């Protein structure tokens, strides 16, 4: 039933949008209500059809404020709820993106997605999406252009997460069935005879990773572990490039780069469970192939010198500064990666982590109406990006929950002899309750709460399906019964069969004697 509801009625989250027009001092050609209708029309054209689960589709409201020297005019549905202060942007320096972002956060806040369009004297039109739930467009822009810009930012950025479509791809949902992710960081010294590097991972964990883990706590329960490995050569080959004065490996070599035989990465205590392990590998090449650079298909050298594999993790090649082999060195050089270099490495790691969740690693969105700059958050994920992840993971978890419970139902029906334990029934009931709560929270616009409830629903459904009692019965086939009990019954059955044959032969002999005697009696009489 839950699966049918999700398929027939995709979960559409309510979204509230607000457009603010500042500095349009000449008499506007459209009233706020007309501007709102125009933005709504543009958003309808940009919205995917049929509606995608995890988006707002048509389940949204739009309000408009026109802030000019004559005062503020607002749409009727905003007059009592708007937190916008008229004239608050008069002295704002729009060249300072961080300052504008902070000022708008203090002025707006809340769960409403806002776009502030400021009509200025500069010919260049500049659009910036902040770290919270707002964006601003500054420049000599007409009302029609402002409407198109605002609608595109609302739909393509705030709803779809910077993508053309709000589709949910399973390969970008790297959360385990139990709602957990294990980030396994691995520092690989290819050849410790050349040099041995270590890292101060604890400081990185405390300063850089903790805010990220806290930001994603509604989507996944994330834990971190690290290790340093030695004698870990890569599987692919590289070649020397005179122009780059480096060893080069191309994107064609990526499938063979990871050396599964030598890279002992799966040492996590969670490797045997249902948690998802994401491997983050920092590879230090040997002196024989250092510096080692990644060449992109267009011939350019990768700026990050790394790559990702969806649902597995990412690899970064880090080249030591002194990349010349000292052939006379008898002992390897033991060093620690500096905090400055480690900071640069983890900036790349954060970009890869975002890509593993299906988000952009760069800070630019290019749309039909223009280019928008995306401010990066210190936590790795902006608030509007976290909203996108919460909505998408809620849908993914509910769909997975419904699929698992449906499979469990079909399995139980196919095995009439199965005895369902009370514990399994409770898990199914609690899973359905959590799924119902997730849908209820989603309808109220509680993105974080719906993600947490959906994660619980999926976890309980998986627990019920993989209960040991069900697994033992589901694999308890007739062939299994025959293989188990034949050693006991075959010896007995052979004796029974031989005894039956002897009795059959004796019966035939006695019956033959009886018939002969009966024939003799008839002749004598």
Automatic annotation (TrEMBL):
Keyword Transmembrane: yes
Topological category with respect to the lipid bilayer: Multi-pass membrane protein
GO cellular component terms listed in the entry, alphabetical order: GPI-anchor transamidase complex
Family, similarity comment: Belongs to the PIGS family.
PANTHER family with a match to the protein in the record: GPI TRANSAMIDASE COMPONENT PIG-S
Name used for this protein in its record: GPI transamidase component PIG-S
Metabolic or biological pathway: Glycolipid biosynthesis; glycosylphosphatidylinositol-anchor biosynthesis
Pfam families (alphabetical): PIG-S
Keywords: Endoplasmic reticulum, Glycoprotein, GPI-anchor biosynthesis, Membrane, Transmembrane, Transmembrane helix
Species assigned in the record: Carya illinoinensis
Subcellular location: Endoplasmic reticulum membrane
Record-level GO BP terms: attachment of GPI anchor to protein; GPI anchor biosynthetic process
Source superkingdom: Eukaryota
Entry keyword Transmembrane: yes
């Amino acid at each position: 039933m839950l699966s049918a509801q999700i398929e027939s009625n995709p979960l559409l989250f309510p979204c509230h949008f607000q457009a603010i027009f500042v500095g349009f001092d000449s008499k506007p050609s459209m009233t706020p209500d007309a501007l709102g209708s125009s933005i709504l029309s543009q958003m309808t054209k940009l919205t995917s059809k049929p509606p995608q689960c995890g988006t707002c589709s048509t389940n949204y409201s739009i309000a408009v404020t026109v802030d000019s020297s004559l005062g503020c005019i607002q749409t009727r549905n905003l007059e009592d709820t708007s937190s916008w202060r008229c004239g608050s942007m008069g002295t704002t320096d729009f060249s300072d993106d961080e300052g504008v972002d902070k000022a708008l956060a203090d002025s707006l806040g809340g769960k409403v997605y806002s776009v502030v369009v400021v009509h200025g004297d500069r010919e260049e039109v500049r659009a910036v999406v902040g770290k919270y739930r707002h964006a601003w467009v500054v420049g000599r822009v007409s009302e029609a252009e402002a409407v198109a810009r605002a609608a595109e930012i609302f739909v393509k950025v705030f709803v779809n997460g910077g993508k053309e479509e709000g589709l949910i791809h399973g390969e970008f949902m790297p959360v385990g069935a139990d709602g957990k992710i294990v980030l396994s960081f691995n520092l690989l010294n290819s050849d410790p005879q050349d040099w041995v590097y270590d890292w101060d991972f604890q400081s990185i964990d405390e300063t850089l990773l903790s805010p990220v883990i806290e930001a994603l706590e509604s989507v996944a329960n994330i834990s971190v572990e690290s290790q340093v490995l030695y004698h870990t050569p890569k599987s692919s080959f590289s070649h020397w490039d005179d122009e780059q004065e480096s060893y080069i490996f191309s994107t064609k070599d990526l499938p063979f780069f990871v050396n599964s035989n030598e890279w002992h990465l799966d040492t996590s205590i969670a490797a045997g469970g249902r948690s998802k392990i994401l491997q983050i590998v920092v590879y230090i090449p040997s002196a024989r192939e250092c510096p080692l650079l990644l060449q992109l298909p267009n011939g350019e050298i990768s700026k990050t010198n790394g790559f990702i594999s969806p649902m597995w993790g990412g690899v970064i090649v880090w080249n030591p500064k002194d990349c010349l082999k000292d052939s006379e060195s008898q002992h390897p050089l033991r060093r620690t990666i500096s905090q400055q270099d480690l900071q640069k490495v983890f900036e790349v790691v954060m970009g890869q982590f975002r890509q593993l969740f299906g988000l952009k690693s760069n800070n630019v969105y290019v749309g039909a109406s223009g280019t928008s700059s995306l401010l990066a958050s210190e936590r790795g994920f902006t608030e509007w990006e976290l909203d996108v992840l919460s909505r998408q993971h809620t849908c993914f978890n509910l769909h997975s929950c419904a699929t698992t419970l449906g499979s469990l139902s079909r399995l139980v029906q196919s095995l009439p002899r199965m005895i369902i334990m009370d514990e399994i029934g409770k898990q199914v009931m609690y899973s359905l309750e959590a799924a119902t709560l997730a849908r209820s929270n989603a309808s109220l616009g509680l993105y974080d709460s719906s993600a947490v409830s959906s994660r619980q629903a999926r976890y309980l459904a998986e627990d019920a399906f993989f209960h040991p009692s069900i697994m033992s019965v589901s694999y308890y086939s007739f062939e299994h019964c025959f293989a188990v009990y034949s050693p006991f019954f075959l010896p007995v059955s052979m004796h029974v069969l031989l005894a039956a044959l002897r009795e059959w032969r004796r019966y035939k002999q006695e019956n033959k004697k009886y018939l002969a005697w009966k024939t003799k009696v008839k002749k004598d009489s």
